[in-house]
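About this split. The held-out portion is used to measure sequence recovery: a designer receives only the structure tokens and must propose an amino acid at every position. Recovery is the fraction of positions where the proposal matches the reference. Here is one held-out target exactly as it appears in the evaluation file.
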């Protein structure tokens, strides 16, 4: 989504004094090292210009003919038709860093307008601290009365920093749902006009847009395009479950997930893509920047959900003795993580870890031991004649989280 790959390194400093080998082992933090998933390679096969450099879309102009937004490539007729055909279930996801436009309606994306009802399918927008997710009924034309609309009030929407938004609807439950940072905050069903299908727009030349909608100019005094930053945009033709939303929101997807129709990682190089966003699904839905919408460095951080105890160990290593250091890893993440630990550089060859790959469960402790044999210590004492520094890195590969910790 993810950026700054945050990692803090444990440092071991050794000063040798003949037979005794004092060692200060400091594990500052079990750092996060984000893997580039296989989907990154897949997307490069579709478009060799994709480049992962930790960016996000910035929208700064929200009204008039210069309003900034992204629309989906109109030259991909088959792809556009597939997007328009989504009608039995839908999920729209994005990371947002919104800025307030008081008293205005700021559109996040959708297929909506112009001409009320006739070209309405689905849309998501902000109105002050409220988030709206609206879907148009296919068989009636009663304006807003027959729409299915979920509304979530988020009082700290503009002060909480980055927020993950997911809007979900399916024709079985006939309910629209809104999730904020993985938690459901709104659910709605139109009891008078329940929907089993999403209305198809009548004008097929109108495009899916993000950061705006086709009906923006229906009310130029009220409507605005989105102001702020947007990242990790995903559109699905199925309703994601609550656990999928919660556990995948920080994860960089492969791009070949079932019913994932469009996926903008938003890390492209503008100079090399001619102001386009690559679709990581390989469905060819290139995003077109309009009116100088731009990509900028992102400051989105995903906090670590695990702790390492102890985080600091002071010890004196004697060449004639074995040395064992034991650490307890506790992961508080609901979804769990796949982790790997290893020693790197310096004296890495002197230490053996009791466990190098494991899966964590929420609040279930994992014990890791770092063992150094006295036989290897003796050899090291003989060959090392002068004091010097060496470094031990203990890293964790947090594969459930997005590579774009700062996206």
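Reference sequence for scoring:
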């Amino acid at each position: 989504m993810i950026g700054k790959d945050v990692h803090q390194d444990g440092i071991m400093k050794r000063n040798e004094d003949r037979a005794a080998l004092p060692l200060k082992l400091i594990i500052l933090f079990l750092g996060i090292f984000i893997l580039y998933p296989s989907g990154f390679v897949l997307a490069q096969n579709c478009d060799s210009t994709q480049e992962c450099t930790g960016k996000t879309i910035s929208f700064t102009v929200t009204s008039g003919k210069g309003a900034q937004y992204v629309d989906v490539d109109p030259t991909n007729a088959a792809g556009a038709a597939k997007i328009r055909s989504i009608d039995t279930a839908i999920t729209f996801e994005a990371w947002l860093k919104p800025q307030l436009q008081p008293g205005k309606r700021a559109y996040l994306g959708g297929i909506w307008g112009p001409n009320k009802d006739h070209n309405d399918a689905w849309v998501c927008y902000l109105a002050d601290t409220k988030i709206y997710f609206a879907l148009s009924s296919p068989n009636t034309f009663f304006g807003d009365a027959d729409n299915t609309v979920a509304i979530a009030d988020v009082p700290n929407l503009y002060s909480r920093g980055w927020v993950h938004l997911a809007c979900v609807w399916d024709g079985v439950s006939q309910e629209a749902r809104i999730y904020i940072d993985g938690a459901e905050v709104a659910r709605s069903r139109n009891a008078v006009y329940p929907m089993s299908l999403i209305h198809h727009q009548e004008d097929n030349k109108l495009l899916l847009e993000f950061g705006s909608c086709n009906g923006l100019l229906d009310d130029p005094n009220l409507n605005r395009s989105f102001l702020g930053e947007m990242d990790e945009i995903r559109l699905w033709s199925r309703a994601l479950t609550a656990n999928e939303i919660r556990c995948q929101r920080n994860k960089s997807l492969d791009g070949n997930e079932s019913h994932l129709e469009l996926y903008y990682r938003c890390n492209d190089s503008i100079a090399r893509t001619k102001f386009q966003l690559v679709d990581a699904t390989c469905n060819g839905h290139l995003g077109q920047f309009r009116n100088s919408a731009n990509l900028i460095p992102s400051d989105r951080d995903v906090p670590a959900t695990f702790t390492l105890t102890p985080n600091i160990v002071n010890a004196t290593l004697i060449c004639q003795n074995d040395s064992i250091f034991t650490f307890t890893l506790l992961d508080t993440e609901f979804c769990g993580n796949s982790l790997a630990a290893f020693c790197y550089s310096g004296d890495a060859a002197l230490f053996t870890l009791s466990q190098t790959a494991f899966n964590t469960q929420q609040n279930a402790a994992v014990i890791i031991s770092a063992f150094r044999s006295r036989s290897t210590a003796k050899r090291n004492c003989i060959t090392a004649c002068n004091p010097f520094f060496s470094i031990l890195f203990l890293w964790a590969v947090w594969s459930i989280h997005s590579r774009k910790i700062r996206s």
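Annotator remark: The longest strand covers residues 89-98.
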